[in-house]
Design a protein that fits this description.
- This protein has 4 helices and 8 strands.
- The protein is of the alpha+beta class.
- Strand 4 and strand 5 form a beta hairpin.
- Strands 1, 2, 3, 4, 5, 6, 7 and 8 form an 8-stranded antiparallel beta sheet that branches.
- The structure holds a DNA duplex.
DNA sequence: CATAGGATCGCCT
DNA sequence: GGCGATCCTATGT
């Protein structure tokens, strides 16, 4: 089942980040279909969150995407190399987003291996936000695409998330502080990271 | 216009 | 466990 707009427009981004664990992130890009179960996510809580790009209402050409309706892809370049994939949540003008940090590859592993420049994809691969985008073929030029109103045309780059009712062992769901946001002061301590071990 | 730095990764030791 | 890659973005002059 394709996750609908109502899933993303909820105004509690931390809850959405938790709910995304165990959902299946899919992409059809450059004619290659790939998918993976989301195993790690982080919430970025809008203008009050110092770790967020939209902190203090910062609104630029890049962050403009975060102010859109929940269910929009926000992808940006990090360290000049990595495209990091986020899902915008909440309503228009409330710039919240969830960073997808890790997936467990499900379908299209040959395509993933091709994109990673390897022969095969191991069971542990898909860990790290830069690697998620690499395996799924997501590029920062895809920022702004809707992941709820997905085009039918297979030529178009398409990204969406499905609920396949996969069973999650909630005892193995860990919560902790986010990675790489030490500059955010007290907000760096917030338990906004979710990991399925 | 110029420049510093980043929600990372992989290779090197 | 340390560092270099690599380039867009934000910010300041």
């Amino acid at each position: 089942m394709l996750l609908q707009k109502e899933f993303y427009t909820r105004q509690d981004v931390v809850q959405v980040a938790r709910d995304l664990i165990g959902k299946v992130l899919c992409s059809s890009i450059d004619g290659i279909y790939t998918s993976g179960m989301i195993t790690e996510s982080e919430a970025y809580a809008g203008i009050c969150d110092k770790a967020s790009h939209a902190w203090n209402g910062r609104r630029t050409t890049r962050t403009e995407i975060m102010f859109r309706i929940g269910g929009t892809a926000y992808v940006y370049l990090c360290y000049g190399i990595h495209s990091l994939f986020n899902v915008v949540t909440s309503v228009v003008d409330d710039p919240q987003a969830v960073l997808i940090r890790s997936i467990q590859p499900l379908e299209g592993k040959e395509g993933m291996a091709f994109r990673a420049g390897k022969n095969t994809i191991g069971i542990k691969e898909g860990s790290g936000p830069g690697y998620v985008s690499k395996l799924l073929g997501i590029h920062f030029s895809h920022s702004g695409l809707s992941i709820t109103d997905v085009p039918a045309d297979p030529i178009e780059p398409r990204i969406w998330i499905e609920d396949r009712k996969l069973k999650i062992d909630h005892k193995r769901l860990r919560t902790g502080p986010r990675v790489g946001v030490a500059y955010a002061g007290a907000d760096a301590m917030l338990p906004y990271r979710f990991v399925l071990e």
